[in-house]
Amino acid sequence: MTDTSTAETPKLETDPYEKRWMFISVVILIVFMATVTVAGFALGFQVPGDESRVDPRTVADSPPWSEPGIRDLGNGEYAAYVISRQYLFQPREITVPEGSTVTFYVTSVDVQHGFKLQDTNVNMQIVPGEVSKLTVEFDEPGEHLYICNEFCGIGHAAMFGSVIVEATTGGN
Q: Taking the model in full, what pTM does it have?
């Protein structure tokens, strides 16, 4: 009979080269998580939300969608109502003064579209029957194109518009 109390259990050894790569992988994951967290707070990342639901067959006939465009809410804040349909955005042009904060409400009346406002953090997927919402501040004058970045049919390339940010006069 053998005595099992003195028997040694085998140890699982990890190669030092493999340990080094596991350590590097964990460090890279921590750096990525920290980068995303800091960027999210510092750059104000927003996730477009499903603001409300509408009937895509009748949305263009009911306020505020019956007259899409910009609404001045006061104190430099604006609401922009945009309808996407094959193959155009309504309105095609939105004009605001520099220093404005604009909340975009976008919906579709026919198929799935995209709404990408260049040089900003606005990038939404537009689904019929849903209103997507994102807010952006325009601190400098210029023109920002918005495009459909979700293929929606043969005229997809013609879906664009622009936000024109006008310089405000200082009065000095």
A: 0.74
